[in-house]
Amino acid sequence: xxxxxRALVEVNCARCHAVGQTDVSSHPDASxxxxxxxxxxxxxxxxxxxxxxxxxxxxxxEWVASPDQIESIIAYIGSLQRP
Length: 83
Known about the structure:
Layout: H1 2-12, H2 42-51, H3 67-80
Helix pairs in contact: 1-3, 2-3
């Protein structure tokens, strides 16, 4: 599941967002995924992914994930979070 989530964020998010433990977001307005839980509850991201994330940085593309994809993405992002 984690590998699938990582693959999904690498394809859909890595152009702008840092998707690993130490990389830096290439877009100045894009959060590093490992820091998302500092700004949002990860469960809140489930709904956003299901409906299509249309907020964030101004040029963020809208992408709607399937329930299985959402589960994998949230699991992966959760694995990155630092206490």
